[in-house]
Every structure is written in C-alpha cells, then in structure tokens.
Amino acid sequence: MLKIAKGRVSYLAVIGAIIFMTIQVIANLNLPSLTSDIVNNGVATGNISYIWKVGMKMVGFSLLSIVAAICNVLLASTTSQKLGQNLRSDIYRKVMNFSTDEYDQIETSSLITRTTNDVVQIQNVAIMMLRMMIMAPIMLIGASLLAYGKNHTLTLVFLVSLPLLALFMGIMLKFAMPMFQAMQTKTDRINRIFREGLTGVRVIRAFRQDQFEQDRFEDANVDYTNNAINVNTLLALAFPVMTLIMSGTNVAIILFGAHLIGNQAMQVGNLIAFMTYAMQILMSFMMLSMVLIFIPRAQASAKRIQQVFDLQSTMKVADNPKALVADADHSLAFDHVSYRYVGAEKSALTDIDFSAKSGQTVAIIGGTGSGKSTLINLIPRFYDLEKGQIKIDGVDITQLAPEKLRDAVSLVPQKATLFTGSLRENMKYGKPDATDDEIWHALDIARARDFVEEDPDGLDMYVEQGGGNFSGGQRQRLAIARALVKQSAIYVFDDSFSALDFKTDADLRAALRQDKHIQQSITVIVAQRIATVADADLILVLDNGQLVGKGTHDELRKTNEVYQEIIKSQIREGDAE
Ligand SMILES: Nc1ncnc2c1ncn2[C@@H]1O[C@H](COP(=O)(O)OP(=O)(O)OP(=O)(O)O)[C@@H](O)[C@H]1O
C-alpha cells in the first residue's frame, strides 16, 4: 500500500494533513478540561464573568478545531484523488506498453477492475489514513493522559471496557477480512462475464445461449451480492455491540463517579470532563479498528495493482537503440525466423527466410492457421522471435527503439478498429499533423472517398465505438486509408482486402501501385485470393508454419504444389484470376 503511494502523493500535502489534524485533536482535547473548569469554578460559584471568559476560550478552540478540520479534509481528499489519478495514468501507460504476451497474463476485464474499483479502494483508505489514522492515536494517548489527570481511580474502568472492545474488534476482523478480500475477485468475475456477454451478444443469440449466459451472470451476481450482504451484516452487527460497550462504560463511570463525588473525592465538572474523555478514548479505539478492517481490502487491491506494475516486459529494448535513415531506400529481411507462442507446444513459424526492397510487394498466402498473421505481427515486434533475425534497412529490429520501429511500419490489422471521435481524428491517428489534402488522397487510394464525400459532415463525420456506423468493407477501407496517411517505410495489410468485392480490391491495389510514396516503400499483403497476390513481386506460400513456396505467380503456379492446390480450389469456387 505504501509502496504504491510512493512518488504518487505530495509529501507536503501529507505533512500539512498531519499538522492540521494534530491541531484539530489538540483543540478538541482542550474542550472537556474547559467544560470541567467552567462547571467547577463558574457554574458552582455563580461567577458569570468567569463563565464568559472560559466560554469564549471554548468558542476559540471550537473554531480552531473546525478550521483545522476543513484544512485537513481538503488536503486529505485532494491527496487521495491525486493518488487515484496518478495510479490510473500509470496503469494505463504500463498496459499500453505491454507486449502481446503480457496481455495474455492478466485478463482485460481484470485490468479494467484494477484501474477502477481497486484504485477506489486505495483512495478510500488513503483518506482514512490521512484522517482517522492520524486522529485516533493522538486522541487515544491525549485523552487517556488527561482522563488519568482528572481521576486516577476512574481510569480503572477502561481496564474492562478496552479489552472487551479489542476482543470484539479482533473477532470482527477475523471474519470480515477474508470477505473484504474476496470482493475484488468477485467483482472481476462479474465484469468478465458482463464483458463477454456484451461483446458476444450476437453469437449468444445466434446459438440461443441467452438463458445459459443469463444464468452464468446471475450466478456471479448472486455470489457477489451474498458476500457484500454478509460483510454489511457483520458491520451492522458491530455498531450495536460497540454502542453497548460504550454505554456500559458511561454507566460505570457515572456510578463510580457519583460515589467519588459523594465522598468529595471528585468534582462534578471533572466527572463531566472524564466522561467526554472516555468517549474520545473509545471512539479513537473504534476508529483504529475500522481502519484496520479496511486496510486489508485496500492491501489486496494494492497487490493487484502492483502485479500490473511488476509485469516485466519480455521485450527488451536495446541500450543504445539505433534509428533508421529517413528517405533512404528501404529493405526488409527475414533471416531464418522461427516463432513459438508462449505455452504452445510447437512453433507457429519455422525457418522463414525472404527479403524485399523499396517498391516491392510481398504477398503471403496459405490456409487457415498457416501462420500468415503471426508472420506479419513479427514485423512491428508484437512478439519476439524464437530463432533468427528480422532486419529493416539492414538493422535488426531488436536494436531499434520500439517507437521508431512502429513509425517505420504501417499496419492494417485483420480486424479493422476505429475509435470514437471524428473521422478526421481517426485518419490522423498515425500522423497528427496530416492535412485534409493528405487525408483525401489516402481515402482516394483506399476507395473510401465516395462514401465519405456523400456524408454531409465529410471528414467531421462521427465514428461510433469500434466504427459501428460503417459496414465491414467501409471500415476496412478506412483502416487502409488511416495506414496510408501515416506514410511509413513498410505497409502491412493483414487480409485487409477480403472484405472488399473483386473490383474494389483490384482498383485499390492498382491505386496503391501508382502512389509515389508506396512506390518507395515495401508492401506486405496477406491474402486468401490468388487474384490479390498474383501481381506481387514475391509470393510466400505458407503451410503449417513452414515456408513451402517462394517466388512469383508464374514461377509458383508451375512448380509449387500447395500454390497449385490453392489455385485449383479457387477455380472450383469460380474465384481465381
Ligand atoms: N495468441 C496465440 N497463442 C497461441 N497460439 C496462437 C496464437 N495466435 C495464433 N496461434 C496459433 O498459431 C498458428 C498460426 O496462426 P495465425 O493466426 O498466424 O494463422 P493465419 O494463417 O493468419 O490464419 P487465418 O487465415 O485464419 O487468419 C495457429 O495454429 C494458431 O492456433
């Protein structure tokens, strides 16, 4: 908990909170003594001017206590809010820098709970620490000493009530702590099922699994609710018991106090003050116990957040990362590359070897699961290799700063993802200073100009979450345009043309070939159709992670069996050139 707060809170604010809380408690501790003074020396003797004098002092201490309390609350809540803000930013930054392997280690839903719910738990306890944790010990010690000063004998009452209270709080902690700790994992479970239900709603309906999913969610929901009810019942039970102990203490003090007053061993005012101190002692003891109940839950949350911070990226960045020379002739080379997914039994790619240079198009074709997407995901270093090297412009990509490498590669993923906002913002994603002319040029090549122009808002058109207000083909074309705006050394299209009809596919590729910038870059295309790959300078045929063919369309169709098979299957489907 302290580790997670380190460097994320202002120490000045923490010191300020401690100072103001100390002032508040000292002012509060003075009030009972002044009350006893006013009763003993003012009320009992009928000395009005003395009552006024001490009364004004009491008002002064009360005002001081109020002002100090306000300052403490302000500092405590600002500090806890800032701590939350910093934690959320740091988690987000860390997660955004995860390599793809790390994403597999902590579920997305759990990451969301950690950024929201867990951070809130820590914020709540931070406020408690900056208020109750400071207030309680000072008040406990101060009130005990002052009560002892008022009457030694009466303090013996605490020898019974405090151990009783401690015993009860101990039992409470034992039962409440595991329930509090379980709350976070139960929240994770609810979020996971809810998220899956939302993203997979169409599949769920199509497979008529609505009831199954509803039951699954209900299960998690009931489990969470029962746990929350149990915790709250326990806390609710605690209050009457604590009130009973406090009232019992009060009664005992009054009984023994009356006896002492009867024997003239104590003044009335001192008894009143003693009772107030007794309440302050018991209250601070309870406050400490409450904080002790909440700390383990926040501790569990802190651990979950720390886990995210502790995840070491498997991707090592070179000590002196190299840069690429802008506007130079480019090259891309795979040098006997193999790759195996973490935990997988066999390699997804084995001994892939090819190279390409500026102006060339490399096409990758192969059956489902043959390793096409894996191969292109290795270019922007989403994963690190098992064996071999990938070089861009002759430099091993592990020697490049990751941001420089990602600048050099423009990727159109298999599943086109657009972000909420205007279309212009989406288009500028890879080049924030892109002009409207550049965007229209890219839309032109991507065959997306027509439908954007038809919309009255044009580039200001609103993009809904995930690009939901566009068809699959339109989304794909916009994703292509976005990649083109970025202007990189290498363009990678992961099955990006499959959502397009044959004519649009052919027009788009022809427009790509004519673009000046593309002519100086390397284009890598993953495709299913022979027609899409036929005019590439180099075609790679993948089968079961192996490179079983490498050459031009003419070479491969004469010599390569797998390629011939693909052609045959597509002729049968009437889908070939
Ligand atoms: N994250 C992953 N973890 C483990 N194995 C994976 C992962 N992603 C893919 N694979 C495996 O790697 C192999 C290659 O998958 P890849 O996605 O590269 O195939 P693909 O040729 O692009 O297929 P498709 O045409 O269906 O997209 C498959 O056997 C797949 O099961």
**Which consecutive residue ranges, at least 5 long each, have pLDDT under 50?**
none
How much beta, percentage-wise?
A: 5-15%
CATH homologous superfamily classification of the largest domain: ABC transporter type 1, transmembrane domain
CATH architecture of the largest domain: Up-down Bundle
**What structural class do you assign from the helix and strand content?**
alpha/beta
Distance between the termini: 64 Å
How many distinct domains? 2
Strand order of the largest sheet: 6-9-10-3-11-12
Q: Helical segment tally?
A: 20
Q: What sort of overall outline do the alpha carbons produce when their principal axes are compared? A: elongated
CATH-derived topology of the largest domain: ABC transporter transmembrane region fold
Query: Would you count the extended β strands for me?
Result: 12
Average pLDDT, rounded to a whole number, is 89
In percent, how helical is the residue content? 55-70%
Major beta-sheet overview: 6 strands, mixed
* Broad CATH class of the largest domain: Mainly Alpha
Over all CA atoms, what is the radius of gyration?
Answer: 36 Å
Bound molecules: adenosine-5'-triphosphate
Describe this structure in words.
- This protein is of the alpha/beta class and 577 residues long.
- It has 2 domains: 309 residues, ABC transporter transmembrane region fold; 242 residues, Rossmann fold (3-Layer(aba) Sandwich).
- Helix content is 64%, strand content 11%.
- The protein is built from 20 helices and 12 strands.
- The strands form 3 sheets. A 6-stranded mixed beta sheet has the order 6-9-10-3-11-12, with helices on both faces. A 4-stranded antiparallel beta sheet has the order 2-1-4-5, with helices on one face.
- Strand 11 and strand 12 form a beta hairpin.
- Helix 5 packs antiparallel against helix 9 and helix 6 packs antiparallel against helix 8.
- The chain is elongated, with a radius of gyration of 36 Å.
- The two termini are 64 Å apart.
- Keywords: ATP-binding, Membrane, Nucleotide-binding, Transmembrane, Transmembrane helix.
- It is found in: Cell membrane.
- It is a multi-pass membrane protein.
- It comes from Secundilactobacillus angelensis.
- This is ABC transporter ATP-binding protein.
